[in-house]
Predict the structure of Leghemoglobin-3.
Amino acid sequence: MGFTDKQEALVNSSWESFKQNPGNSVLFYTIILEKAPAAKGMFSFLKDSAGVQDSPKLQSHAEKVFGMVRDSAAQLRATGGVVLGDATLGAIHIQKGVVDPHFAVVKEALLKTIKEVSGDKWSEELNTAWEVAYDALATAIKKAMV
């Protein structure tokens, strides 16, 4: 079974909720650094800070990550696969030293953030929709890293 209209709608609605509160981006990166403190140096907007502090660059990057997962959901529903819109993503991830375990950390942070953002609208179905979309995006990025 492919990615459904309902799954795409779940991702879209929670994406909209995510964007409404800038604190969600801080939460996302806080979770990442709790799991992988060494990853701090991979993010230019965190490298020289004492901790995770809100900034336009942090907001922009978080929205880009969540937005790409949302776009992946749309692609999965429409075509059954994900094609990167930015051909440089693989090279950027290589340059930053991203390795396979980092994708798992980001996935966990993304899913925890979405759960927090969704509040009483959270469900296993919502979680699965984000998980499937993220996994497809991560696979596409990893392929581009070769």
Observations:
- The chain is about 70% helix and 0% strand.
- The two ends are 29 Å apart (CA to CA).
- Residues 8 and 73 are 6 Å apart (CA to CA).
